[in-house]
């Protein structure tokens, strides 16, 4: 299950009215606080149709600002460092995003690895929104435009990788066994 606020944040980042998004996905949002993983896949597909943008998840994540996304953004905004923000994120992410997120030290830095649930594997957008949102939050809070040394996504390659490569400052590896950032 996914908190409905996560969908609201992403829709707002895209400039999509939440009611229009749910209507396009043919999902009733009245009185709900959560949606199923499969409904999130359906909502991302509706967002892609409404915007005509195959990179809609990536663009939504890249536009998110930490204090606009409730408690999940606060873990970055009030951390003493990017590393502290990532540690905080790993400890609370399970309440907001399905899947497993882990942080481990590597030579010269940290590696963030995400494993999404199988029932979310049909949509590229949630994973792309998550990774771009983490980088955007880190950049906003550190006030630096850092690049990454490696980004690998389990998604198939898009028609053009340029918006991703440019945003991350590294060439994205597509079709990876596991999604990670260094």
Task: List key phrases describing it.
alpha+beta, 7 strands, globular, 182 residues, two-stranded antiparallel sheet, five-stranded mixed sheet
Task: Explain what the structure shows.
The protein is α+β, with helices and mostly antiparallel strands and 182 residues long. It has eight helices and seven strands. It has a five-stranded mixed sheet with strand order 3-4-7-5-6. Strands 1-2 form a two-stranded antiparallel ribbon. β5 (151-153), α8 (162-168) and β6 form a beta-alpha-beta unit. The longest helix has 18 residues, at 125-142. It is globular. The mean pLDDT is 88.
Overall form = globular
What are the secondary-structure elements, in order, as H or E?
EHHEHHHHEEHEHEE
Strand order of the largest sheet: 3-4-7-5-6
- Please give the alpha-carbon distance between the first and last residues: 28 Å
Global mean pLDDT:
88
Unreliable spans are none
Structural class: alpha+beta
Strand % is 5-15%
**How many strands in all?**
7
Helix content: 40-55%
Radius of gyration: 15 Å
What summary fits the major beta sheet?
Answer: 5 strands, mixed
Number of helices: 8
Task: Summarize the SSE layout with pairings.
Elements: E1 2-3, H1 4-14, H2 18-25, E2 34-35, H3 37-51, H4 56-63, H5 70-77, H6 82-92, E3 100-106, E4 109-115, H7 125-142, E5 151-153, H8 162-168, E6 172-174, E7 179-181
Parallel strand pairs: 5-6
Antiparallel strand pairs: 1-2, 3-4, 4-7, 5-7
Helix pairs in contact: 1-4, 2-3, 4-7, 5-6
